[in-house]
Specification:
- By secondary structure, this protein is an alpha+beta fold.
- Among the domains are: 26-212; 370-527, 2-Layer Sandwich (Heat Shock Protein 90), CATH 3.30.565.10.
- It has helices spanning 26-93, 100-119, 124-155, 165-245, 259-332, 338-366, 379-389, 391-397, 413-429, 487-497, 534-544, and strands at 375-378, 400-403, 408-411, 437-444, 448-455, 502-504, 513-519.
- It has a 5-stranded mixed β-sheet with strand order 2-4-5-7-6. Strands 1-3 form a two-stranded antiparallel sheet.
Length: 557
């Protein structure tokens, strides 16, 4: 294989800007190289394929045609000999027992003839030998054997003396001669087939040996070409680029290799010059970005403080509305009709729901602020806390709440307790006619724990699998099931904060199965710490958590 010409410019320099590149481009060089390699490989593959086809044909001829034909021929001759022997004994003794070999041979004879014709279907010369043997056999049967057996059966052994034995011997000798001719022809063809197999095997070995040698030489040539045209120039350009990247912006990137790689080196050199000129601009931009980051951090801090203050201020008028409605009910309750009392109850209930929504929003916003509270948490203990919190509901519904042996994970114990409480509470809230049964299971995966919270409640249709995790999304009216619609959204946020996820399972009918994961070795993304001091945020949070609004008896709609 002839190597493509190298660059004609002196000292390996690239062609001047705007001039057509001199010499073959790398793409053209590699294209020619791989085209030659493809032609050589096709030639090798064709030679090997031809040798394999030849070998396969020789093996098929010997093993699938001639060898079975020889066996069938031997079996046919054996059956004919058995017929002749059995008939001779019958002629001497006159009993049917001596005729049994003859009868068996007559039954086997057409079978062996059919096998021979099937095996030798593509060989008319051998089929002619089979036909000749069949004709001689038929002549022996019709002209001697069948008539002799019929005579003995009709007149007894005395008729055997009248049978023309010499005629029978002559006819069967002709059968033997035809059988010998067939056997000789088959053995001759078998010897030729064996030689063909040996020759085809030798040709295949030679083809493989030559192909292996050519492939080694071809791969060595390709390796040399890649080393000369690709790897050495790229290593040189990469060395210069790394020197520049290390901070030596005055180091010049020299062109090397084919024209396109030399053009690449020129582009890198142009980039170095631009970087050298724009270094000051980049430093100024970095200062500007840091300034903007500080401003964004201050903005986030102000927004978070605003959220806490706004939540506190929003609850103040709610407390006034509820308080004054309760005062109206106590002072003027005897003067109000049933509709007026109902209106007051509606107002108090609306204020309570508004306060619950605000508190839930505050809890939702707190999740994910920091991972400083992460510790090794035994989930079995947290499961006990959750069931203790829900003990009155569990006892009232006569529910059964069980769990597998739960592992130890790393996380925030308060948030994980809230997660289990929300999931078990949901299962208890949406129960069916039977006593609620809730089971928390766990399976170990290579890099995480997979949990299932399964119940026998009313269930959730698959079409709502995503909607139920959206904040404030409810599938039932407030008059049917209480709540703000934030529980499952809070569960998702808690799990995503811990590096896990939650989804609705489809393996509980009836009932509901929630599946969620927690990492075995939690690798959390870096949480953005609030800029404001922690004690200020805690004070704002505690100020916003106002005691729930209570209504007078019978005030809830």
């Amino acid at each position: 294989m002839t190597a493509a010409p190298e660059l004609a410019s002196p000292a390996g320099q690239a062609s001047p800007a705007g001039a057509p590149p001199r010499g073959w481009l790398l793409r053209r060089r590699l294209g020619v190289t791989y085209a030659v390699a493809a032609v050589v490989l096709l030639a090798i593959a064709g030679t090997v394929a031809w040798s394999l086809v030849r070998l396969e044909d020789a093996i098929h001829t010997r093993s699938d045609e001639l060898a079975p034909a020889l066996l069938s021929s031997t079996q046919l001759v054996s059956s004919l000999v058995d017929q002749e022997t059995g008939m001779r004994g019958y002629l001497l003794q006159g009993t049917e027992d001596y005729l049994e070999p003859y009868n068996n041979g007559r039954r086997q004879e057409p079978v062996y003839l059919a096998e021979l014709r099937q095996r030798l279907a593509g060989r008319p010369d051998l089929l002619a030998e089979v036909t000749a043997l069949n004709q001689r056999t038929h002549a022996w049967h019709t002209e001697y054997a069948d008539s002799a057996i019929a005579a003995v059966r009709a007149r007894g052994t005395a008729a055997a003396k009248q049978v023309p034995l010499l005629r029978g011997k002559m006819l069967f000798d002709q059968v033997r001669a035809a059988a010998d001719d067939l056997g000789t022809a088959l053995r001759t063809r078998a010897v030729i087939a064996r030689h063909n197999v040996t020759g085809a095997t030798r040709s295949l070995v030679v083809a493989l040996s030559i192909g292996a040698a050519v492939l080694i030489a071809l791969f060595a040539a390709i390796a040399w070409a890649l080393r000369t045209w690709v790897t050495r120039p790229i290593e040189r350009i990469g060395r210069d680029a790394r020197t520049v990247a290390a901070g030596e912006l005055d180091h010049v990137v020299e062109p090397a290799g084919p024209p396109d790689l030399a053009a690449l080196a020129a582009d890198v050199e142009s980039m170095r010059q631009q970087l050298h000129g724009e270094l000051g601009v980049a430093q100024a931009a970095r200062v500007a970005v840091e300034t903007q980051a500080d401003a964004l951090a201050r903005s986030n801090r102000d927004l978070e403080q605003f959220a806490y203050v706004a939540s506190h201020d929003l609850q103040e008028p709610l407390r006034k509305v509820a308080s004054f409605c309760q005062l109206l009910e106590r002072r003027y309750g005897d003067k109000l009709d049933e509709r007026g009392t109902q209106y007051i109850a509606f107002a108090v209930d609306g204020a309570k729901r508004m306060q619950q929504l605000i508190n839930d929003l505050l809890a939702f916003s707190r999740v994910g602020r920091t991972t400083e509270s992460f510790v090794e948490v035994p989930l079995g203990d947290l499961f006990g806390r959750a069931t203790t919190t829900l003990s009155l509901t569990i006892e009232g519904l006569r529910a059964e709440v069980t769990a597998d042996e739960l592992p130890v994970v790393r996380g925030d114990p308060v948030l994980l307790t809230q997660l289990l409480t929300n999931l078990i509470g949901n299962a208890l809230k949406f129960h069916g006619d039977d006593a609620p049964r809730v089971h928390l299971g766990v399976t170990e995966q290579p890099d995480h724990w997979e949990f299932t919270c399964q119940d026998n409640g009313i269930g959730i249709d698959a079409e709502y699998a995503e909607k139920i995790f959206v904040i404030f999304q409810r599938l039932h009216g407030r008059e049917v099931y209480e709540g703000t619609g934030i529980g499952l959204a809070l569960c998702r946020k808690i799990l995503e904060f811990h590096g896990g996820r939650i989804w609705l399972g489809a393996d509980a009918r009836p009932g509901t199965t929630f599946r969620f994961t927690l990492p075995r070795q939690t690798a959390l993304a870096a949480a953005v710490e609030p800029v404001a001091p922690v004690d200020v945020l805690a004070a704002a949070a505690s100020a916003s958590e106002v005691a729930p609004i209570t209504s007078s008896p019978g005030g809830s709609p």
